[in-house]
Design a protein that fits this description.
This protein has 27 helices and 13 strands.
Length: 600
Amino acid sequence: GGPVACCPCSPRLCAGRYAARAMAPPSATHARRARSAESSSKKQWFLGAFVVGALAVCGALWVGAGSAFFRSDSGWAPADAAALRSSVDQVASHLEHTLARQVQAEPRNPEIALDYALVILKRFADVADPDQPSTGRHGNPRRVTTARRSARLDVEVLRRGQELLRRAASLAHNHSAVLLRIAREQRLHGFLEDALASFTRLLALKPTDSYLYVLGSDVASQLGRRNEAIALLQRALQLQPSSLYALSNLGNEYYLSGDLHNATAVLDQAVSLAPKRAEVLYNAAFMHEEAGSFDVAEKLYRRAVAAGGKNRIAALMRLGFTLAAAGDRDAAAHIFQQVVDESPRYVRAKHMLNAVRGTAVSSASISYIQAMYDNFAATYDARMVEAHRYALPARVADLVASVAQSARRIVDVGCGTGLVGAALRERLGANVSIHGIDASKLSVAKAEEKRVYDTVEHGDARALWSSRGTEGANAPYDIATAVGIATCCFNDLQPLMRGLSLLVREGGYVVLTVEEHAGAAHELAPTGRFVHALAYARDVATEYFEVVEAVRTSGFQQYNRSVPHAILLLRRPLPARGSFTCSRDGAVHEQAAEAAAGER
């Protein structure tokens, strides 16, 4: 196969030439070439054997280190840890020098050495995830991060991997194919600044490659550099104006930067290029819906549904949301019913059907909460903070900081992806222990990545207080935050207020948010969210707390409008002349000290 593939003549003639050469007597030149080839082959074999052996040793040492670490409740044993680290460093250092020599020996072909460097990084990364399946206190599956235990191992793994990739990048020189692989690995492992630098080098080498501009823009977007991402995508479109991928990404960047006018214009351009492509129609419809252009969004969603494809059910759901936002509840109910008929297990469609029909429900089902926030987890932070100007975490953290002078333990009920935890950690520092709990497994994973919680638990928040009998001074937390949990989960606030009162000690605080409306005391709105009158929330709160402060504010932006919210700062009263207890059914009982003394 080799001679035929690399010779421009016909296969028959090529085979004849090689046959003639094979029958000819070997010359001195042929003999020297043969000995040189044999020597080179032996060198490559020994190098390959050494590299494979070194990889095996590195992997065994790191896996052993990780196993020893996780078997120990107290973390690393200093002597063992030092010995393991020393062994790993020696082997890795020797291997790196060998790879560097190989690249110097073959400066125009560094791919082999770089491949080994990336394999090492992957082997290190394989032991970087300390999560172990476990069960929560109340039988709920959970994932718990103990940041202080795992930080040393994770930091060492990531630092070593980052160094190896930087070393590989420095060896790549002007080899664009190798540099592209390195940039992708840097992006994959979260070394975003390094990845952006590598893509910048690539663009200098290949300034007319539109795809590289798109890849670089994605890294800039992950770093939150919207203007840089937009500039890279605009350059990609100058090189390839019909790139639907670049147009879709540019529309998304405009959306995240709050520029809905340009977002809709760019995606309308994509629709003009691909008028029957379902995902293009869906993206354009979504932007018009976000901009409040419900008529245009409805038409585009209907075209996306007619186009079919894997996004058909998603397009139907968004069509239902658009009709509900436009005030056509009957049409929205018809669409949601169609989704339920086609996908009976789609719990969000069932929830929205209750919302647009005005069905009375006391709380959302746990399956709905898990499904919805698992679906949003990957993009929740960018969409809520940047596109929707989500301001509640920062404002809640400010209120907590004003009363947290002596606080030591805080629980973030419904922690989600960790936005509130990050704001609390920024204001309160490392001296406060923060525990998070959320029903969405993927949201908990995102919260763990932020490393702002001491522990994060995956489970139903109601399990936190269901096992506690009555209030008492030994309640576990000084402060509890509940941001958004009333809006997504509770129509009737009574169970939530009662549960939160069981979590905080006497004199402790609760900070709770509600989406406010001017209608009835509480209802499931056509948006699918629970809304509450501020007067109703205060009345329920006073059964268990003192209302210290109630602040009206804008929670976020939706459909180009502010969504009104209220933040309640509540304080669990200290016992004065009597002590307060709360029974399981939520009734509040006061027992005067004199009466209790008389009975004794």
